Amino acid sequence: MIQRIQTLYLLLAAVLMSLTLFLPLATIWQGSEEFVIKAFTLDGPLGVESRLPLYLGVLLALPTLLPLITIFLYKKRMVQIRLCVSEIVLLLGSVAFIALYCYRLCEVLAEMMTDLNFTLGFASLMPFVAIFFVVLAIRGIARDEALVRSLDRIR
User: Fold this and answer.
1) Is the pLDDT of residue 38 over 90?
2) 133: Cβ contacts below 8 Å, ≥ 6 apart
3) How many CA atoms lie within 13 A of 64 on its CB side?
4) Which residue from 15, 67, 144, 152 puts its CA 20 to 30 A from 126's CA?
5) Do the Cβ atoms of 66 and 59 come closer than 8 Å?
6) Where are the strands (E) in 13-86, listed by range?
7) pLDDT tens track for 106-126
């Protein structure tokens, strides 16, 4: 059913991942120059904004949409479990891509500048919290599936 607890877990995962689309993922600064990495843009010093390749934004948008799709497949619990596992894989991939992207950007900026400082943003930790909620949703869906199968056995 759509009003089950796993719906709340999946909704929380979607909200957390939507925050990663808008909040800063990391900040790199050298002296007074500050570069802010977001999902779709790289904000440079003096308000200069450059577009990033869409890979990072798309990879963060997919785990935002997948829980919303999964919520409405409440009659197909096994499909929901498979989509939740796919969600976890996407979340782990997005964490790895964020780490790789920030590392490569630091390398490129280190060639041009010296004495760089790097700080991860709050939004870069959101996929880990979303993984926790998706795992809780899988447990809830599996519990519902076990309940339905036990009731079918009684008939």
Assistant:
1) no
2) 9, 10, 12, 13, 16
3) 16
4) 144
5) no
6) 26-30, 33-37, 41-43, 49-51
7) 887 778 777 788 888 889 899
Residue bearing tokens 């963060």: 60
Two tokens at 85? 């596992």
Place of tokens 């490129």: 108
Residue 69 has pLDDT above 90, yes or no: yes
Q: How far apart (Å, rounded) are the C-alpha atoms in residues 27 and 45?
A: 12
Q: What is the reported pLDDT for 47?
A: 62
Q: Which of 41, 47, 3 is nearest to 22 (CA)?
A: 41
What is the spatial distance between Cα 55 and Cα 61, in angstroms, rounded to a whole number? 10
Residue 40 · residue 57 · CB < 8 Å:
yes
* Cα–chain center distance at 136: 16
- List C-alpha distances in Å: 36 to 42, 53, 105, 128, 143: 6, 15, 11, 21, 42
